[in-house]
Amino acid sequence: MLVFEGHSSHHDTEKAVDEATQEWSNQGPCKPDIIFAFHSTHQNPSEVASNLAKRYPDSLIAGCTTAGEWRTGHHQSHSLVLSGISSSKMRWAVEIVDSLAEFNERTAETVYKSLLNKLNIDRSDLTPKRHFCIGLLDGMTGLDGSAVAAMANELGNVPFLGGVAGDDLKFEQTHIIANGAAISGGAIFVMAESDEPFTCIKHQHYVPGDRNVVITKADESELKVVHLDGKPAAERYAALLGIKVEDLNFQVFSDHPVIYRYGGESFVRSIHSVGEDGSLIFYCAIEEGMVLNLCEHRDMIDELQHSISALLEESGKAKLLFMCNCVFRRLEAEGKQQSQELAKHATDAAIHVVGFDTYGELWNGLQINQTLVALALGSE
Length: 380
Fold this sequence. Notes:
This protein is α+β, with helices and mostly antiparallel strands. It has two domains: about 1-205 and about 300-375, no CATH class; about 215-295, no CATH class. The chain contains nine helices and 26 strands. Helix 1 packs across helix 2 (about 45-55), helix 3 crosses helix 4 and helix 7 (about 300-315) runs parallel beside helix 9 (about 340-350).
């Protein structure tokens, strides 16, 4: 397995792509099977997509805009990061969804069948030991949770992970890169058949606490919790924290997310803001009747070290670590001046690292927050 990597902070997109790929030809025949591309709003997504497609017409290309970028040994912003993969032991397929607004169960079935056809395999051939799927979704539609659930239903026990595109915390418009084009409002799904070893990782530094609340009224389409335990949601949440509603802000939400327990696992749900009606607006899917737990915070560095040590013990150092890291984790790390230390520990897990800071993470059938999901691919 050969991994190409590169990066650039040029705002001129053509120069950025040129700089990021300038060393690739030195690694032998420069024909990546697939190129993952993640970049800030300082580079033009359509130009990133078209420049890469022009340079590498035989390569699949998948990526998105970000809220921060990861590369080997570094976390950064306002940049373009690239990683190309070439392996005779892997086959890839990419399917594009132009609009998540029209995504439903039938769309998921069509996407799933198309991916199988491109790989020339049957549903019965799929196995979680040889196949995985990566999803990259638009960050501003508000419909990504339903798309994730529909795709996961089709994929069954095939590992499914990924992230929601960002736009440097502007919350205006995000883009997905798919082969030679950039689209807003859509998604791409990447399926791989791999005889290279791989491991999927979900890492978070929050654990369940001792206080639960129930969503008793919600507007699920708006990701809005109206009532918790029968009381106005913001009022109830603030009371649990021992503060006033007017003191709720971005930092409070970042420090005090909630956890949803499902299938024996904990999944973090982050709060976006307080609505004008006293509701709580979430970043990801919520439902009436859902039991939420006010979780407890652990040290991010310590927890990441523990997760990576377990990964190394189980499967050894990987060739590539593909990361989707929540923007809340980025902000916390920056506030504590831990960003580069986190990047260093990520490099302990793999020779090469590529990834981005997200507006939400995908893990099988759920969209979650304040989590790092990753794919460790290949072996040293």
